[in-house]
Amino acid sequence: MTTIQATDRLLARGVLSTISENQLRKELLTNYHGIKHVQRMYTNDEYNTPKELVQINFTSPKHTETFLENGFIDICNLRCPVKALKSSTNVQNHLENGATNKILVHDVSTEILMNEFGEKLSKSYPGIKYVKRWFQTNGSEVPTERVQIDFESTKYTQTILQDGFIHIGELYWPATPIKPNNRLRKQLESDSGSDNQSEIYTEQNLPQVFDEQSILQAFEEQKQKLSELIRYFDVQLNNIVHLQNKSGVESLSG
């Protein structure tokens, strides 16, 4: 009898490269439970060509058992062979069934502005208190693809956690619970696709009193917002320059 490797990570093969990452997330999140990260593999060259390989990370090894026993996972009418990847080194912090008013959303592109993201979420999900992106805590202020959402009550998170995802229209993202503590001290395994490298992220509640630390935190939050605005206006400026250049070329050709 073959022993099934206990792991919370799978690699699916034969996933057509014409299937977009959002299509993959929607298909997987709406059909399977416990998924927290979906990532297509690309060639490591100048062309960055999508491969027919997709890494799928789950919240617990129990969610991968059936796929490993069967040897495949169905994706968009394709029966894709799967193999076990090395399990993440720190999955015990996950709170799967506990009541919580905090959730962590995964795979949210760093190009998405939090103000816009929060406004769209509030139209679909009631009871949202605030939305904030997590940043690496190594001093680099590099944004991650994880976004924390705090709700007014646990009643607003129950359906989301049962589904295992949130969505805005046709855009889908995995969602997992955050253990409700006054000061969360979490060490989460990186979902960057590397099996041997981890990053530490922290989350703090909104300050209740304006002491020195809360003022510093407010200052850091303003810096983050300013960075997001700068990135947004850079994109807008590049679009304007592109349109002007295109218009100039068309005028010359005319």
Provide an overview of this structure.
By secondary structure, the protein is an alpha+beta fold. The protein folds into 3 domains: 9-84, RRM (RNA recognition motif) domain (Alpha-Beta Plaits); 88-206, RRM (RNA recognition motif) domain (Alpha-Beta Plaits), CATH 3.30.70.330; 209-254. It is 30% helix and 26% strand. The protein has 5 helices and 10 strands. The chain has helices spanning 21-31, 65-70, 114-124, 158-163, 212-253, and strands spanning 9-13, 35-42, 50-58, 72-75, 78-84, 102-105, 128-135, 143-151, 165-168, 171-177. The strands form 2 sheets. Strands 2-3-1-5-4 form a 5-stranded antiparallel sheet. Strands 7-8-6-10-9 form a 5-stranded antiparallel sheet. The protein is globular, with a radius of gyration of 20 Å.
List keywords for this structure.
alpha+beta; single chain; five-stranded antiparallel beta sheet; Alpha-Beta Plaits; 10 strands; globular; 26% strand; 30% helix; 3 domains; 254 residues
Question: Quaternary arrangement of the chains shown?
Answer: single chain
Spell out the helices and strands N to C.
Answer: EHEEHEEEHEEHEEH
What is the CATH class name of the largest domain? Alpha Beta
What share of the residues does DSSP label as strand, in percent? Answer: 25-35%
| CATH level 3 topology of the largest domain | Alpha-Beta Plaits
Low-confidence stretches: 91-97, 183-214
Number of alpha- plus pi-helical segments: 5
Q: Helix proportion of residues, in percent?
A: 25-40%
Q: Separation of termini?
A: 74 Å
Radius of gyration: 20 Å
Biggest sheet statistics: 5 strands, antiparallel
**The CATH homology group name of the largest domain:** RRM (RNA recognition motif) domain
Overall pLDDT: 78
The spatial strand order of the largest sheet comes to 2-3-1-5-4
